[in-house]
Amino acid sequence: MGEKSVQKKKYIVETARKVFMEKGFKKVTMKDIVEACEISRGGLYLYFENTSQIFLEVLRLESQEADDVFSDSIKEDATAADILLLFLAEQKKELLRKKDTLTQATYEFYFENELPKRENILKKQFDSAAKIIEKLIEIGVENGEFYCEDCKGTARNIMFVLEGLKISAQTIGITPEAVDREILYILRGLGVEDEEN
Amino acid sequence: MGEKSVQKKKYIVETARKVFMEKGFKKVTMKDIVEACEISRGGLYLYFENTSQIFLEVLRLESQEADDVFSDSIKEDATAADILLLFLAEQKKELLRKKDTLTQATYEFYFENELPKRENILKKQFDSAAKIIEKLIEIGVENGEFYCEDCKGTARNIMFVLEGLKISAQTIGITPEAVDREILYILRGLGVEDEEN
DNA sequence: AAATAAAAATACATATGTGTCATTTTTAGC
DNA sequence: GCTAAAAATGACACATATGTATTTTTATTT
Q1: Cys staple from B105: which of A160, A170, B25, B31, with CB 3.0 to 4.6 Å?
Q2: Closest-CA residue in chain A for B183?
Q3: pLDDT for the residue numbered A70
Q4: A1 falls in which pLDDT band (50, 70, 90)?
Q5: What is the pTM of this model?
Q6: Which residue has the closest alpha carbon to D21 C1'?
């Protein structure tokens, strides 16, 4: 596959991403993507066999970007508590965006494609986020900012709370206050006294 | 609508429930339900316009049954901690069932049907479960079994953790150990010392 | 038992999606 | 500028779903 083909494949994935953002996963057909890309039926089938394959590529793209965002928060010259708070604030913002259809699409995709663990991008993202939080807590404990006996467990607990908020935001809806309360609980769990909040 | 019609409608909903349990929500067509019920196309359209309407009825059914299960745990002659543990054990069992396709179907349904809050059955279930946990914690606090400053907030936090575990079970997979750890954290959060665990 | 109403079945017209393949167009090397 | 390989096109054959209009069956009433 030449350079041109690589470019086109990338173009298809980026265009398809927008389609998935609008319609979720299951509703999207090859036809939709063909039309969005303004290419021919046969043309698309030259690159991808079905929507699942395209969506997997979209997920890989997202995954890379997600990593970058995280490292942005980290390289600041701040305390562990600051970084954690920054991260949670970022999460809050995402949670309160009315409809995160790409998140929905991802869930839909995993509902019907039970991937082996090593290929499960969602799991990778979960694990890597949990790992970073864990490290952050460890640093905080060393600094005396946090109190925590089981950093790994606590990190994963935080991730589960965030997951719970995320799916709730998409199904039953959540209020900013609910998110704030959960953040407060997380901080209290780490022995951080609530000052300005 | 005569008694016979009521019976038939009920029969359709119960049969459709099985179909949704096998295929989720979006994949299911009116044709699927027609075939499962062994009735005619026109016959089904006499009762329901589309799969969404049928699924709503399935949800109502589930909702009723969920209430019953909860009250079962409650009417025992046990301490608050016992009841909470019983409830969490029940949740664990459900979480570890390999594929809970009806749960997936429910999420799928809510992804595409943004219902007004008052009609959101999932929200009702969430709220009513949170309410019961809240009462339970209050009783525990009065008994001196638990320590808790914000029973309502804590109850909702527990629900979010459970929601996080539930969606994770369906997407990235979870281990029994992960659930146990979350349960442990919940109990610790209520000031319960871990004895036999 | 005939007449009428209600319920159910069937066939149809319409719509939408899939994947392939013969053909045309474009690209890149000589 | 010619030519061979690569890329792209769009029509086709097939499959599946929808919703309705008409007919048939079943039940009810007189």
Answers
A1: B25
A2: A157
A3: 63
A4: low
A5: 0.93
A6: B42
| Per-residue model confidence (pLDDT) at position B197 | 46
Q: Which nucleotides of D are covered by protein (CB under 7 A)?
A: 6-12, 16-22
Give CA A56 to chain center in angstroms. 14
Q: What angle is formed at CA A173 by the lines to CA B71 and CA A25, rounded to 5 degrees? A: 110
Q: What are phi and psi of B92, to 5 degrees?
A: -60, -45
Return positions of chain C under 7 A from a protein CB.
6-12, 16-22, 27-28
DSSP label at residue A79: -
CB contact under 8 A, A161 and B164: yes
- Note the pLDDT of residue B5: 77
Tokens encoding A152:
């790994």
Q: Which of A46, A21, A14 minimizes the C-alpha distance to A106? A: A21
Q: Which residues contact B75 (CB under 8 A, 6 or more apart)?
A: none
Across chain A, mean pLDDT equals: 91
Least confidently predicted of A98-112, A144-158, B62-76, B125-139: B62-76
CA of A14 to C1' of D24 (A): 55
